[in-house]
Design goal:
Blueprint: H1 2-23, H2 26-35, H3 40-48, H4 52-62, H5 72-80, H6 84-110, H7 112-131, H8 136-145, H9 150-165, E1 174-181, E2 186-190, E3 193-197, E4 206-213, E5 226-228, E6 232-236, E7 246-251, E8 264-270, E9 276-280, E10 285-289, E11 293-298, E12 302-309, E13 319-326, E14 332-340, H10 347-350, E15 367-374, E16 381-384, E17 395-398, H11 400-405, E18 408-416, E19 423-432, E20 438-447, H12 467-483, H13 486-495, H14 500-508, H15 512-522, H16 532-541, H17 544-556, H18 559-562
Antiparallel strand pairs: 1-4, 2-3, 3-7, 4-6, 5-12, 6-12, 7-11, 8-9, 8-12, 10-11, 13-14, 14-18, 15-17, 15-19, 16-18, 19-20
Length: 566
C-alpha cells in the first residue's frame, strides 16, 4: 500500500506545508532548522528569503527530512521550540492521515480483488522508478501528474531531467522529435527520415521519439578506412514493445547496384559512460536499399548507422544530411548540410577516377555547390552563411582541404522569401572544379505548409493535460483579458506579428483583451504548455501586473515546464 498512501496524502501534505510556512517567522525557522541540523548555507538561504517559512518547508521537503508519512518529526520539533499552536496543525494532519488510512484499509479488505490489482500496478510503477534512481518525491509528483501511468510518469521525469542536463549522446548537429501515436498507428518525418508505425503495432498510446545526427563525435562501428553513408538514427524509446515491425526510411549517399554487397546495418546500445556499443543486426532489423534511401524494418527500438567498407580506387561519396529550420520571422529558412567522412582517405579514393591518369595534378581545388530552384512558383534567393561564398548567391565554392582532409564540413544556406506558401524543390549539385564533372546531386523538397516555428511546436502532452491545468489556463486568459487595454493589445499583436486585419479587429472589438488572447491561442502562439513568450512580451512592454499573472500560472502549474518538448 506504499504508493496508494503517498498518492492520497500528497494534496493534504502540500496544503499542510503552505499553512505552516505562513505561521513561521525567521526566528522560528532558525530554531527549527537547528533541530533538523540543516547546513549553514541552507540556514543562510532561509534567513535571507522573502518568505523564510516557505523556504524552510521547501528545503525540508527536498532533503526528505519531512515526507507525507514522516510529519511526526516536524511535530516533535515544533513542540521542542514551544510552538504549540503550530504543532497542533501538524498533529491534526497526523490524526487525519491515520484515520484516512484506517478507512482505506477497511475498504481494501472489502474489495481486495479489485484493489489488489490496482495496488500492485501502482506499487510496481513506484518501485520501478525508484530502481531507476529518481528521487522519491519526484516520483510521487510525476505519478500524480500522470494519473499513475508509468510511461507518462517516466517521460515527465526525463523531460524535467533533460531540461537541466541536456541530452549527452548527440551534443551537436542533431534534431529530435517526439510524437504521440496510438494503436491506430501513425507517421513521423524529420530531416528526410520517414517512420511508419502500422496499426496494432502498439497496444496502447505511446510517445515515439526520433533522434537524427551526423555529428562526427559519435564513434560508430567503423573500421579503418570505412565510410558512414547515412546519419545516425535513434528510434525509441528504449523498452518499447512492438507487436508489428515499423518501417524506417533513412537517406543515404552510397552508390547502389543490383548486387548489394559490403553493406552492414548496425544497432547500437548506449553505455553508462555515454559510449555506444555497436553490433551487426540481423535478427530484429532487415534492410533493403534504393538509390537514395535505406529501407529498414525494425521489430524493436534501435540506434542505427549505415556503413560501407573502404575499397581502394572505388568511387566514394560523403554523407550529406539536409536539415531545414524556419526562423522566428516566418519568412526565412536555413538549409544545413553536413558533409562527413569518418576517416581521412587517400586523395585518389575520393576524387574522380580521372585523377588516376594525372598523378602530378594538384587535387586540392574547390568543389562547387550549385543550388537551383525547380518548379516553385516563388523565386528562391540563396545566400551562403560561410566565408567561402562567391559573388553569385547560388554558387558556393568549398575548399577541398576543408571538405576532405578535415573529414567534415558544415554549410548553412539561408533561403529568404517572404510569404512562401508552396513546395520548393532544390537541386544541390557538387562538381569537381578541375574537370567539371558531377560528383553527386541531392534533391531537396521543402513542403512549406508543414513547417512551424519552434515557439509553435506543441507538446504531445497537450492532449492529455490534467483538467486542473486546462482550467487554470482558461482562468489566466480571463484575468489577462480583464487587465489588458486596447493600446496594449495592439502593441502585443504587433510583437507577435499578427496580421494587420487582426490588429484592426482588435481596435474595433468591445473586449480587445479577450479577442487578442483568442487569436494567439488559435494560432498556437500561446497554450497551457507554451506561455513563456507571452511573459517575455508583457515584461518588455512594461506590463508588470499581467506578467506577474503569467509567472504565477507557471509557478502553480509545474507540468507546464516539465512537458515542454526539447
Amino acid at each position: 500500500m506504499l504508493f496508494r498512501e503517498y498518492y492520497s496524502d500528497l494534496h493534504a501534505y502540500e496544503k499542510l506545508k503552505a499553512e505552516l510556512s505562513q505561521l513561521l517567522d525567521k526566528q522560528h525557522c532558525e530554531k527549527l532548522g537547528g533541530r533538523f541540523k540543516l547546513k549553514p548555507e541552507d540556514q543562510h538561504i532561509i534567513q535571507t528569503a522573502e518568505e523564510p517559512g516557505k523556504m524552510l518547508m521547501k528545503i525540508l521537503d527536498e532533503t526528505e527530512l519531512i515526507k507525507p508519512d514522516k510529519i511526526i518529526d516536524l511535530y516533535k520539533g515544533l513542540k521542542a521550540i514551544h510552538l504549540n499552536k503550530v504543532a497542533k496543525v501538524a498533529l491534526e494532519y497526523i490524526d487525519m492521515s491515520t484515520r484516512k488510512h484506517a478507512k482505506e484499509g477497511e475498504q481494501y479488505n472489502e474489495n481486495s480483488d479489485v484493489i489488489s490489482k490496482r495496488e500492485f500496478q501502482s506499487t510496481r510503477s513506484f518501485k520501478i522508478l525508484q530502481e531507476e534512481e529518481y528521487a522519491t518525491l519526484d516520483i510521487q509528483r510525476a505519478l500524480k501528474l500522470s494519473f499513475g501511468k508509468l510511461d507518462l510518469a517516466r517521460r515527465i521525469l526525463l523531460l524535467a531531467k533533460e531540461a537541466h542536463e541536456g541530452f549527452p549522446l548527440f551534443p551537436r548537429s542533431t534534431l529530435y522529435k517526439e510524437q504521440y501515436i496510438d494503436q491506430h498507428g501513425g507517421e513521423m518525418d524529420i530531416a528526410g527520415l520517414h517512420l511508419v508505425v502500422p496499426a496494432n503495432a502498439l497496444h496502447t498510446g505511446r510517445i515515439i521519439s526520433l533522434w537524427v545526427s551526423n555529428d562526427p563525435a559519435i564513434k560508430g562501428p567503423i573500421l579503418k578506412k570505412s565510410l558512414r553513408m547515412s546519419p545516425v538514427v535513434k528510434f525509441g524509446p528504449e523498452g518499447l514493445t512492438l507487436h508489428k515491425p515499423v518501417s524506417l526510411s533513412i537517406p543515404h549517399c552510397a552508390f547502389t547496384s543490383s548486387i548489394q554487397t559490403g553493406i552492414d546495418v548496425y544497432s547500437g546500445v548506449l553505455q553508462t559512460d555515454q559510449s555506444v556499443k555497436w553490433s551487426p543486426e540481423k535478427k530484429h532489423l532487415s534492410c533493403s536499399m534504393t538509390t537514395n534511401h535505406l529501407e529498414i524494418e525494425a521489430q524493436k527500438p534501435c540506434l542505427i548507422g549505415l556503413h560501407v567498407p573502404y575499397i581502394p580506387k572505388m568511387k566514394k561519396r560523403v554523407c550529406v544530411l539536409p536539415i531545414v529550420n524556419i526562423s522566428n520571422m516566418g519568412d526565412q529558412f536555413t538549409l544545413h548540410l553536413w558533409f562527413h567522412n569518418d576517416e581521412k582517405l587517400e586523395h585518389e579514393s575520393i576524387i574522380h577516377e580521372e585523377v588516376y591518369k594525372n598523378k602530378g595534378l594538384a587535387v586540392h581545388r574547390p568543389v562547387s555547390f550549385v543550388l537551383k530552384s525547380m518548379g516553385s512558383t516563388f523565386p528562391v534567393n540563396i545566400v551562403c552563411s560561410t566565408p567561402q561564398c562567391t559573388s553569385d548567391p547560388k554558387l558556393v565554392n568549398v575548399d577541398t582541404d576543408n571538405l576532405w582532409l578535415q573529414n567534415r564540413l558544415k554549410c548553412a544556406f539561408q533561403i529568404h522569401n517572404k510569404g512562401l506558401r508552396n513546395t520548393v524543390n532544390l537541386r544541390i549539385e557538387s562538381r569537381n572544379w578541375t574537370f567539371g564533372t558531377i560528383r553527386f546531386q541531392l534533391h531537396v523538397e521543402l513542403k512549406i505548409e508543414n513547417f512551424r516555428r519552434a515557439d509553435q511546436i506543441e507538446s504531445p502532452f497537450q492532449h492529455i493535460l490534467p483538467q486542473s491545468i486546462v482550467e487554470s489556463f482558461a482562468q489566466l486568459r480571463k484575468d489577462l483579458s480583464y487587465h489588458l487595454q486596447e493600446g496594449e493589445c495592439v502593441q502585443l499583436a504587433n510583437m507577435f506579428r499578427l496580421s494587420q486585419n487582426v490588429v484592426m479587429d482588435i481596435e474595433k472589438h468591445h473586449r480587445p483583451g479577450a479577442f487578442l488572447l483568442e487569436m494567439l491561442t488559435k494560432n498556437s502562439l500561446i497554450s497551457a504548455t507554451n506561455i513563456s513568450l507571452l511573459e517575455h512580451a508583457l515584461t518588455e512592454q512594461g506590463n508588470d501586473e499581467c506578467a506577474q499573472l503569467v509567472r504565477e500560472f507557471r509557478r502553480n502549474n509545474p507540468i507546464v515546464q516539465a512537458t515542454t518538448c526539447p
